[in-house]
User: Which sequence fits this backbone?
């Protein structure tokens, strides 16, 4: 299914947003009523003050009818996340150790939030049960999921929404993947309720009928599944940042926020280290053609970042414009040389076969006439390098194998780069002007990105040079 699916009408909120951002993009008719799924991260619900902000956000928009909360997160840098405390309780119980003191911190946090908000809800019995179950040997997934479960009860009370246990609407199949048919049918039924619903994030029910969690940060995935199942007009992911930034703010001071990008661009940036959403969260909404809007609970008027299918955005041509820059350090290049390699059938397969049989995944394979290099993340080679070199020598009979550690990869991503002459010139010009030596170049045939490899010590300077040449304030 794509964004311009049949009967799809541009909701009013998107119309307004695009208007505010300089219009132009969609040729769809506005429509007033829609359904928004809102996921709130741990810092958005860390204490009573944050919960009040969440209530104000929900109250200002009647379309925000399905809410997916995380467990309370950190209130300050030194604070603890409820989920981490629950893991700690479980680890203690597994060792036969007392965990009353740690559990008291959990009780205290929930109690405080409920008291400060004056909620008519008593979680004592629930908390007692959780403590007893953990002490009695319940699974680690059960223990970890209780932060979301208990917080879901609180958030439902704050909002006056129905509480729906995620184990009643999010189902896993025998392989541990989401059972979409079963889950989506259950979620769809929630949209017909007269009141809004709160569905805790992070967990669902396994085929064996047990609580099963996603990997850490998995409430993002829950939110995406709920959005897809409900057929939402938008999946709002409320967090503590004002959207996705064009570059890492630790490298580029005050980088611009990306106002909109495609799912594929996000994937490219995320793969190269830009994190804002859980890796798996994009797939359910992408498949259903549902836009994702990253928003900041602490700055609710900011439109944040909108993630859309390619078909919803105009082709940018003749304009040198990038979407973002991301990069990672610690890559190693394995450079293999052999005279007349170009005419040797099967050389590449044999070389990559050595990596495969050693369980190593690779990133890129830039090649010359008589050389082939494989770029691998250094971690992948941990403890295996000598063996890999030996096997390459035995299998490929090369003239030489050279190892070059310490390479950083930088991806400059932008759908606007396709068919636009001059992008590469500008990028390499900036690196040249900055005195930065380019060790590797890779441009995907989709022209969605240009990846360059530079020495690790040039990484930050290279990112700044690229940003500076494409983004003019
Ligand atoms: N509370 C879980 C975690 O800390 C899930 C989430 O917040 O998304 O990983």
Assistant:
């Amino acid at each position: 299914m794509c964004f311009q699916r049949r009967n799809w009408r541009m909701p009013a909120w998107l119309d307004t947003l695009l208007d505010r951002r300089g219009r132009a993009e969609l040729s769809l008719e506005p429509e007033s009523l829609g359904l928004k799924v809102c996921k709130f991260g741990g810092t958005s619900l860390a204490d009573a003050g944050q919960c009040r902000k969440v209530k104000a956000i929900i109250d200002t928009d009647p379309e925000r009818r399905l809410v997916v909360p995380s467990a309370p997160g950190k209130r300050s840098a030194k604070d603890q996340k409820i989920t981490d405390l629950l893991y700690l309780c479980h680890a203690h119980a597994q060792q036969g150790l007392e965990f009353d003191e740690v559990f008291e911190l959990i009780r205290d946090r929930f109690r405080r939030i409920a008291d400060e908000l004056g909620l008519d809800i008593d979680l004592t019995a629930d908390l007692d049960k959780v403590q007893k179950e953990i002490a009695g040997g319940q699974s680690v997934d059960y223990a970890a999921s209780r932060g979301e479960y208990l917080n879901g009860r609180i958030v439902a009370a704050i909002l006056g929404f129905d509480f729906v246990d995620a184990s009643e609407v999010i189902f896993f199949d025998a392989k541990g993947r989401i059972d979409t048919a079963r889950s989506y049918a259950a979620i769809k039924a929630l949209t017909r309720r007269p009141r809004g619903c709160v569905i805790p994030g992070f967990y669902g029910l396994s085929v064996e009928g047990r609580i099963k969690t996603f990997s850490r940060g998995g409430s993002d995935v829950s939110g995406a599944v709920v959005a897809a199942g409900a057929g939402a007009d938008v999946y709002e992911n409320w967090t503590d940042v004002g959207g996705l930034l064009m570059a890492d703010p630790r490298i580029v001071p005050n980088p611009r926020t990306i106002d909109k990008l495609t799912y594929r661009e996000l994937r490219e940036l995320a793969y190269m280290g830009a994190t804002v959403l859980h890796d798996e969260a994009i797939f359910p909404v992408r498949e259903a053609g549902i836009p994702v809007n990253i928003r900041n609970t602490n700055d609710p008027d900011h439109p944040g970042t909108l993630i859309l299918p390619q078909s919803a955005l105009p082709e940018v041509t003749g304009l040198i414009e990038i979407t973002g820059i991301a990069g990672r350090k610690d890559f190693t290049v394995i450079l293999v040389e052999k005279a007349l390699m170009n005419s040797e059938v099967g050389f590449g397969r044999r070389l990559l076969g050595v990596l495969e049989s050693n369980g190593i995944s690779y990133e890129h394979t830039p090649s010359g006439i008589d050389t082939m290099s494989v770029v691998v993340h250094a971690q992948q080679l941990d403890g295996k390098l000598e063996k890999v070199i030996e096997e390459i020598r035995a299998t490929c009979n090369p003239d030489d194998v050279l190892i070059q550690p310490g390479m950083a990869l930088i991806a400059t991503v932008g759908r606007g780069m396709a068919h636009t002459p001059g992008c590469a010139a500008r990028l390499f010009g900036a690196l040249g002007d900055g005195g930065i030596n380019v060790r590797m170049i890779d441009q995907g045939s989709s022209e969605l990105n240009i990846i360059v490899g530079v020495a690790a010590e040039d990484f930050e300077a290279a990112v700044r040079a690229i940003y500076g040449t494409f983004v003019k304030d």
